[in-house]
Design goal:
alpha+beta, 3-stranded antiparallel beta sheet, 2 helices
């Protein structure tokens, strides 16, 4: 495993957040725009269950590096 290119997924059941450490430039946009979800001092540091799908998507769309992306989960 390359520690400089970790890929993780976090879901709230409605939307899944994908994070790629190798692309992250640590701009802090995610933390400033949605501190309920993005908490770098916590484990796990991304908790999508703390926010709405719309807020999460809006925050991810502000990521300048592309380290954060998302996909919508299929409805059952």
């Amino acid at each position: 495993m390359d520690l400089h290119d970790i890929k993780k997924e976090y879901t709230n059941g409605e939307v899944t957040i994908m994070w790629q450490s190798g692309k992250c430039i640590h701009s802090g946009n995610c933390i400033r725009n949605n501190p309920k979800v993005f908490k770098p001092k916590d484990k796990p540091w991304i908790t999508p269950e703390n926010s709405s799908k719309e807020e999460i998507i809006n925050t991810i769309n502000k990521c300048p590096s592309g380290a954060l992306s998302y996909y919508l989960n299929p409805k059952n």
